[in-house]
Design brief:
heterotrimer; A alpha/beta (145); B mainly alpha (341); C alpha+beta (212); A: 145 residues; alpha/beta; Rossmann fold; five-stranded parallel β-sheet; C: 212 residues; alpha+beta; Alpha-Beta Plaits; 2 domains; two-stranded antiparallel sheet; 6 helices; elongated
């Protein structure tokens, strides 16, 4: 019964941690605009956590540059289980216009298992809310295991 | 037999009211009300009032990661020490005329017990071995020192007022302060106590570490400061202590300055024709409800309103603010009380 | 320490929130929003222009030889697309359309691929002119004026040098960049590897001197 209580609560309070892996900041602006009074993701329980150890969902923006790759991987490894990784925008999914550059280490799915992709350049805040809601559902399934 | 009964009664006090369960429910509800009201002031919908409960249970279900550089036992035990100290403080604060343990302790005990939750978070941060925690805990130490001075002055002012009225010099016992207010009306209605009440209202967000005085736990600057390495159930206990501290400080304010309402409750119950044992139980229940509503009102005024209207202060600005403006207000009240006004 | 926003804070406490309550409330995209791509394979001529101008290398083309002709499949990878709409601008047949659908959330990479295919039949073989050239004008007055060139069998364009004025319009409009025209030297050359027989040069020629 306690497990059910925890699972129900976890679906209503997923905390986000945002990593910028070399992004142009377009997707970052759309992500923080989700937390402003216009779209207000906090009514669904989302909160931006300051430390990766506090987070459930990790949102990664930007093509993963070679300089940021070890740091991104270290930050993701600090997120406690169960966790969900969401890539935002087309850059971490495939590199977009930066693919093949000398400083881009490739799509994030080469290094960690990515759960949700939110495509767009940059995705609309409503699409980001959709992606986060899907990530919450996936978290619930992960917890059920 | 009676020993067992009284032991059970005291256990009930510790675990249910005004102990652990009351603190848990009341503190979390206050925290939820604060977040909701701040959201409404920022023209958005905000999380549901029960959101802190969801946060707490979710954190209980996450895994606990202990960093390799951390001192493990201290890291895991520190949050529990802070929580225990806060529940003990709440046990000592009278709920209008009902006092579970207030006969055993007075304001001085509460004053030094209030230091323990802040110390526990400092020690927890130090035990985690993270440089962010180091920055956070040095800021927290400065905040604690800043808030101590006006707090002591306010408590002295209240003690002197009640003491000189009762003829005993300085009266530190909370039960006697509550009884005095029940008989003679709230202390806040006296003109000399208003600066002290205002100073205490300004000390509350500093002590709880709420915006704009949360330089110690600044989220974006230093990755949550002292809590940077915590995850899972210990983090849940820290968030719970933060919520209970709000309840403790606001109920202390009610006990010190708004105690006259207790007398009104007794009058209402007498009007309804209830006396004796039944009046005792119903009076306690009514007292608890009224206490919670007053705490909510005070939270809205001094925590949420200040949160929504200001930006975060730097640590030296916090220190300067508390040791000049707020201390001056408290000192004014102390001087007026000393001259018997 | 002053409190600059106290008035707004208190007044907003009692006013309505300015949230757009998504996902409970519908939220359509602005007009001309460049969202999910819709590809119309029936209009496509496989000139390859979109593939060349795509900034994110999101378009791939696969050609399979079947009995009826070439089965050409174009795939648009939305996970690599920048939504700049350059492909739609350059498509001369408007086969690429950007809709207002912004819900592009996927758990598998396959969900982000938009593809379509069509069969490109080889052009019908034109019969070789049987009669002598001087008899042609009298027999078929409605046909295009007599030209001194014969159409090719593979359908690629051929230019009539007697009519061509070397205005270079065909070279400019060719999506494949397969035509080279030199005004000074009065030469017209076709790069057969690049040409995709889309017919744009024949359409734009002001003198109608190109036949496919």
């Amino acid at each position: 019964m306690f497990k059910k209580l925890i699972a129900e609560s976890a679906a209503k309070s997923p905390w986000l941690f945002h990593i910028n892996a070399g992004s142009c900041n377009g997707c970052d602006i759309e992500l923080v605009s989700v937390l402003t009074p216009r779209y207000d993701a906090e009514r669904l329980g989302f909160k931006l956590a300051g430390s990766p150890r506090h987070a459930d969902i990790v949102v990664v923006t930007g093509p993963v540059t070679t300089q940021s790759l070890p740091r991104v991987l270290r930050a993701i490894s600090q997120v406690p289980e169960p966790r969900c990784i969401v890539t935002m925008g087309s850059c971490p999914q495939s590199g977009n216009v930066f693919r093949g550059s000398y400083s881009v280490a490739g799509p994030l799915s080469k290094y960690v298992h990515v759960d949700v992709d939110v495509a767009g350049c940059a995705p609309k805040p409503e699409a980001v809310i959709d992606g986060l809601a899907l990530a919450t559902k996936i978290l619930k399934e992960k917890r059920g295991r | 037999m009676s020993i067992i009964l009284s032991a059970l009664q005291y256990l009930g006090y510790i675990l249910i009211f005004p102990g652990f369960l009351f603190c848990f429910l009341g503190g979390m509800l206050l925290c939820g009300i604060d977040r909701k009201i701040v959201a409404k002031m920022q023209k958005r919908v905000g999380p549901p009032v029960l959101q802190p409960f969801y946060d707490f249970f979710k954190l209980c279900g996450k895994e606990t990661i202990v960093p390799a550089a951390a001192a493990k036992t201290t890291f895991l035990m520190a949050p529990l020490v802070g929580l225990a100290a806060l529940v003990v403080i709440q046990l000592f604060i009278p709920v209008f005329h009902f006092s579970a343990f207030s006969g055993m302790a007075d304001i001085i005990v509460i004053l030094y017990l209030l230091l323990i939750p802040a110390l526990s978070i400092i020690i927890g941060g130090a035990a985690s071995g993270s440089p962010y925690a180091g920055v956070g805990l040095s800021r927290e130490m400065v905040t604690v020192i800043a808030c101590e001075l006006p707090l002591v002055l306010v408590l002295l002012a209240v003690a002197k007022t009640v003491g000189s009225a009762l003829g005993t010099g300085l009266c530190f016992s909370l039960t006697e302060i509550a009884a005095y207010q029940a008989a003679n009306g709230s202390l806040i209605l006296r003109a000399s106590m208003i600066p002290a009440a205002l100073a205490f209202l300004l000390v509350i967000p500093g002590e709880t570490g709420n915006h704009p005085f949360d330089a110690a736990e600044a989220e974006t600057e230093i990755c949550e400061g002292m809590l940077a390495e915590y995850s899972g159930p210990p983090l849940a206990v820290y968030k719970l202590s933060h919520a209970i501290k709000m309840l403790t400080l606001t109920s202390l304010f009610v006990a010190l300055f708004l105690g006259g309402i207790g007398g009104k409750i007794v009058n209402i119950l007498a009007l309804l024709g209830l006396t004796g044992g039944a009046a005792g139980a119903l009076g306690v229940l009514l007292g608890a409800v009224v206490l919670f509503l007053l705490c909510a009102l005070i939270t809205i005024v001094c925590i949420s309103l200040v949160h929504a209207a200001t930006a975060r202060l730097k640590i030296e600005q916090i220190f300067k603010y508390y040791w000049t403006v707020v201390s001056a207000l408290a000192l004014m009240s102390l001087v007026l009380a000393w001259y018997g006004l | 320490m002053d409190f600059p926003f106290i008035k707004e804070a208190i007044s907003q406490l009692f006013s309505k929130s300015s949230c757009a309550m998504y996902p409970a409330a519908e939220s359509p995209a602005a007009p001309n929003y460049r969202g999910r791509i819709v590809y119309h394979p029936d209009r496509c001529i496989a000139c390859g222009m979109c593939e060349r101008v795509c900034s994110g290398n999101a378009i791939t083309r696969r050609v399979e030889k079947t009995d009826e002709g070439d089965k050409i499949t174009l795939t648009f990878n939305l996970g690599s697309c920048t939504f700049c709409a350059t492909c739609a601008d350059f498509c001369s047949r408007n086969a690429i359309e950007f809709t207002g659908d912004y819900h592009m959330v996927a758990t598998k990479e396959e969900d982000l691929l938009v593809s379509g295919s069509f069969i490109k039949k080889p052009p019908a073989k034109k019969p070789a002119p049987a009669a002598k050239p001087q008899a042609a004008p009298a027999e078929a007055p409605k046909e295009t004026p007599a030209c001194a060139v014969v159409p090719r069998e593979d359908g690629k364009p051929v230019s009539d040098p007697s009519k061509c004025v070397y205005c270079t319009l065909c070279a400019k409009k060719c999506p494949a960049g397969a035509i080279e025209v030199d005004r000074a030297a009065k030469t017209w050359a076709l790069d057969e590897e690049k040409c995709v027989a889309c017919g744009t040069c024949a359409e734009v020629c002001p003198k109608k001197c190109i036949i496919m």
